[in-house]
Design a protein that fits this description.
- The protein has 79 residues and is mainly alpha-helical.
- It has a single domain (10-65), classed as Arc Repressor Mutant, subunit A (Orthogonal Bundle), CATH 1.10.10.
- The protein is 62% helix and 0% strand.
- α2 (42-49) packs across α3 (53-65).
- The model has no long low-confidence stretch (mean pLDDT 87).
């Protein structure tokens, strides 16, 4: 029989459900911005959702992998 650990139980499940909902809402927010604007850079999206460009880039990769968005263009930065 497994022993209960601190953090197990209803409170942990509620926290996990809240995080799942938060991620789903964030994903939906990004997809909705892309529906409205069709084309945005990761930097533009990061300003809209209040996250770093790196974090948004990671989310975009996951959304593309899940088939929710298509990444059409990757360009070299100047510099």
């Amino acid at each position: 029989m497994r022993r209960a650990r601190a953090g197990d139980g209803p409170t942990k499940r509620r926290r996990e459900a809240a995080m799942t909902d938060w991620w789903r809402e964030l994903d939906d927010e990004i997809v909705n911005y892309l529906i409205d604007q069709e084309s945005l850079t990761p930097g533009e999206l990061s300003q809209k959702v209040g996250m770093s460009t790196d974090a948004v880039t990671s989310l975009l990769g996951r959304l593309a992998q899940e088939g929710r968005i298509t990444i059409l263009r990757v360009a070299r930065t100047s510099g």
